[in-house]
Design goal:
- With about 375 residues, the protein is mainly alpha-helical.
- The protein has a domain of about 210 residues.
- The chain contains 13 helices and no strands.
- The radius of gyration is 32 Å and the shape is globular.
- About 25% of the residues are buried.
- Keywords: Membrane, Transmembrane, Transmembrane helix.
- Belongs to the autoinducer-2 exporter (AI-2E) (TC 2.A.86) family.
- InterPro entries: AI-2E-like.
Amino acid sequence: MAIPSRPTASKAAAHQGAVPPGRTGGGAMQEEPPARAGRGELAVFTWKVLIVAGIGALALFLWNVSGTLLLIFTGVLFAILLQRLTGYVRQATGLAHGWALAIVLVALVLLVGGGGWLMGTSMTAQLGQLQEQVTRAMGMLPEEWRQRIMDQSKNWPWMSQLSGFASGLVYVIADAVVVMFAALYLAASPGVYRRGVVLLVPPQGQERAWEVMDVAGDSLWKWLIGQLVAMAAVGTLTAIGLWLLGIPSALALGLVAGLLEFIPLIGPFLAAIPALLIAFSQSPQDVLWVAGLYLVIQQVEGNLVTPLLQKRVVDLPPVITIGAIAAGGVLFGILGMFLATPMAVVVLVLINLLYIEDKLGQPRHFPSSDS
C-alpha cells in the first residue's frame, strides 16, 4: 500500500484557512522586516549620540564663558540688594519703582563716595605702607621659609590668580563696570528678566518656576545681609584692635579683614597673614598679641554675631560651605571662592524644591521656614 505524501506548509495553511507568511488578513499580525527594524535601531542610536554631543557642547560652552557667568551672578547679587532697598523706600514713601531706585542709587553713591573722600588719602597711604611693610617682613623671614612660601604659592592656582587680579587694574575696572550695569538693569526691570526665565519652562511648570525664583531670591537676600553685617563687624573690630596694639596700617588691615570675611572659614586666615607679617617685623611679642586679637575677633564673630544673625538669615551646613569654597577656588580662582557660598545657596534651594519636594514628595530642609 502506498503511503500518502505529507502536505507542504502552503497546502496545510490553505487547508486550515491560515494566512501564508508575508500576507495580511484574518487578524494575523504582520512582522516588521529585518531591514526596517535595523533602520529604527540606528535612528535611536543616532539620536542618543546627538543628545550626548549636545550636552558636551553645552558644557564646553558654559566652561568657556564661566567668567562672564560669574560676573552676571555677581550682578544678580547686587541687583537683589538694590531691589530690596528700593522696596523699603517704596513702602516708606509710596514712590514709583523708578524714583525709589534713583533715591537708593544716589544714597549709595553719596555714602561710598563721601566715605572714600573722607578717608581716601589716609587709606591710600596706608595701603602703600602695608605693601612696603609686608615686603620688608617677608625679607626678614629665614630663606627656607621664604622659599617654601614661594613654592606653595605656585601650587595654589587661586594664589596666582589673586596676584593677577590685584595687578590687572584695568580688567578689574572693566569687570566692575559689567557687574554695575548688570545690577542696574536687573534692578530696574526685574519682571522682564524673571518672565524670560519662566518662558523657558514648560507651561505646566511655570508657576513652580516663579516660586523657585522667589525662594532663591529671598535666601540670597538673607545671606547677603548676614555677610554684610559680619564683614562690617569684623573689619571695624580688627581696625580698632590693631590701632590699640600700635600696629601700622591698622585701617588698611581692617579693610582687608572685612573684605576677606566674605569668604567664610578661609577668609579670616588669609586676612591674618599680612598683620602677622607686619607684627613679626616689629617684635615677636607683637606677633602673639596680633594672633590673639584675630582669634578673639573670630570667636566673637562665630559665637555672638553669627548666631544672632542666623535667626534671620540662611544657615549653610559647614561641610557644604567648605566644599563649595574649595571647588570654587580650584575651578574659577579667587572670584569663584568669593561667590562659592551664594552659589551653594542657590544649588541647595533647587535641590530642596525640585528634587526633595517635587520628586521625593518630602518636606524641604533648606531654607527652613523659621530661618
